[in-house]
Design goal:
Blueprint lengths: L1 H11 L6 H19 L2 H33 L5 H11 L4 H47 L4 H13 L2 H18 L2 H4 L7 H12 L8 E6 L16 E6 L3 E5 L2 E6 L2 E7 L2 E10 L2 H10 L5 H20 L2 H6 E6 L11 H12 L4
Parallel strand pairs: 1-6, 1-7
Antiparallel strand pairs: 2-5, 3-4, 5-6
């Protein structure tokens, strides 16, 4: 109730809730000052100078939004640029009324008193630009494109953390301890499926954990090592985990075992995969929803949040191994995923 009362008092004032009333008050004060201090001819020149600066400021503001929109376009074709320009200048009727009024006043004065108008702008341009900015803040109504841009920007600030929440609760916790999610004691946990794989294939997994790879480029190959890495190959798949979930009957959860060559020594076997939500960030960058810098920032937020979520869950903490790494070397070459997995396994075994 207190918040409602504060909100009502705020709306009743002359603040942001009533910008048009504030603007009308400024216009009246400005007009009275001119009437009592300036001759009629100079009043017209002053009004036209202010109208011209308002027009320039509004046009400049929309051009800035247009440039931002063009940077977000995936393909800067002529059609795409035209659509962006149309959306950028699709303004409310009140805004167009202000623009047309300013244009007419400026045109008439320039036509009759061009020298006086330019002289006034040179002497008092800073004052007119200040008035123009105040006018824009008071009467401006955001266009649909501006609203979408602002909402998209705010939404992208937390996309990394949101992806981490979804990945942890919709996949990792289900994978490591399915019985706790669906209350079916017949389902095998990740540890039990690993043990069954070892017995069925007569191999020993070097690390009894699911290794989740998180490359900083946010790109993950469809199958690890398909890009020419000869030291890694698919060994087999563990038994599928089938859970009826969210309307899908017996949804399948499949995990792949990889064989990592280890020189002349015995190869390492491990269960590994990439963190698939990072592909979402990669797709968002490619379609223009995120810049390269925003993608890196959201990738870092994703890793930090996912690490926190995994560490606070007992089943995930003991069976999930998160590996954040730079998949590009200093000379710009891709780092083989086999070397990453080999180093991780050796570290887990205490060999390094």
């Amino acid at each position: 109730m207190a918040d409602c009362a504060r909100s009502e008092r705020h709306d009743a004032g002359m603040g942001p809730a009533r910008p048009h009333a504030f603007f009308v008050g400024l216009v009246i004060i400005f007009a009275l000052v001119l009437i009592f201090t300036k001759p009629p001819k100079e009043i017209g020149v002053q009004v036209a100078a202010t109208a011209m600066t308002v027009l320039l400021v509004m046009a400049g503001r929309q051009c800035c939004y247009l440039l931002c929109e063009l940077q977000r376009l995936r393909v800067k074709s002529a059609n795409g640029m035209l659509n962006a320009a149309v959306e950028c200048f699709r303004l409310p009727r009140t805004s167009w009324l202000v623009i047309v009024t300013c244009f007419v006043l400026s045109f008439l004065t320039v036509h009759e008193h061009s020298n006086e108008l330019w002289g006034t702008l040179e002497r008092q341009g800073h004052v007119h630009f200040l008035v123009a900015f105040v006018t824009m803040l008071c009467v401006w109504e955001p266009s649909q494109m501006e609203q979408q841009y602002e909402l998209g920007h705010l939404g992208s600030l937390h996309v990394g953390e949101n992806l981490a929440w979804a990945y942890a609760f919709n996949y990792l916790t289900v994978l490591t301890d399915p019985c706790s999610r669906v209350h079916d004691r017949s389902l095998c946990s990740l540890q039990e499926r690993m043990t069954q794989y070892e017995q069925d294939n007569d191999v020993v997994l070097a690390v009894k954990k699911l290794i989740v790879l998180m490359p900083r480029s946010c790109y993950i190959e469809p199958e690890l090592g398909v890009g020419g890495d000869e030291d890694i190959e698919v060994a087999n798949h563990m038994d599928e985990l089938k859970i009826s979930r969210a309307g899908t009957r017996e949804r399948k959860y499949t995990n792949t075992v990889y064989k990592i060559r280890n020189g002349d020594d015995s190869p390492y076997y491990c269960v590994a995969e990439g963190a698939s939500p990072l592909l979402t960030l990669n797709d968002m960058r490619e379609c223009g929803e995120l810049t390269v810098e925003q993608e890196r920032a959201q990738m870092s937020k994703f890793c930090d949040k996912l690490r926190d979520l995994v560490n606070t869950n007992a089943a995930c903490r003991s069976r999930i191994l998160l590996v954040e790494y730079d998949d590009m070397s200093e000379d710009g070459r891709p780092v083989p995923v086999s070397s990453i997995l080999r180093n991780v396994i050796r570290k887990e075994l205490g060999l390094t």
